Amino acid sequence: MSLYTVSGIIIRRYPLGEADTIVHILSKERGKVEAVAKGARRIRSRLLAVTQPFILGEYLLFAGRSLERINQGEIECAYRRLREDLNLFALCTFCCELVDKVVQVGEPAPKVFYLTKGLLDYLHSDQPERLHLENALTYYLIKLLDALGYQVDFSSCLLCGAKTGLTAFSVVEGGPLCSSCSSNDLNSLRFQPAVFCSLDKLSSLGWAKLGIIKLGPYQSEIEKLLETFYHYHLEVETRSAAFWKSIRS
Ligand SMILES: [Zn+2]
After folding, report:
1. pLDDT tens digits, residue range 130-152?
2. Given 23, 79, 173, 219, which residue has the most CB atoms within 10 angstroms?
3. Where are the domains positioned within the chain?
4. What pTM value is reported for the model?
């Protein structure tokens, strides 16, 4: 009999059979853990509350042959507001779905865990209308690349190091190109120089200072850059991205 404990965030859940729930936990210790919570959909189940989306909890797991089983769970932070506000729910769903695809079972990813916890803490820290949701998402997506080993430096040209006149982005090489060097990568995408300035500045901020930068005029270009990068390097498409885009205000 093999029991162990993890601290983690519920990043995905779906029903199994009549009353069970399968959860994917982004754990601090072991990367993604997939586990079954027996009877967790019964209203009186002690596992019902600890298997809700975005819950941060401590879970006592029994190692199964193909799937772990949750024996006990204790809530560390419930993040209730993230399930009650539609914008926050959509944003968290999008980010958790992305993480579910890029973090593998049994591969420790502590940086991704702390980054995702940072996102949930930020989104839970104030009234939704006082938060900077677009900035938070963009910041999360840039830092997630860092955490996964794709360090993108938005401050200078990949080839010559120029810090001004950046007009294109090489998706394959993962960095900006100046107007002189952009002809070296015929597949590079063109962007306004301010897009790179904004991303460079945003990536140097912490959660508390996200609001000091205005991404508004460049938001659609930034989305295109990040979406193309994620698609090319991580091969991820996220169903909930469309949901998030359709409801955001
Ligand atoms: Zn250059």
Report:
1. 899 999 999 999 999 999 999 99
2. 23
3. 3-77, 81-247
4. 0.93
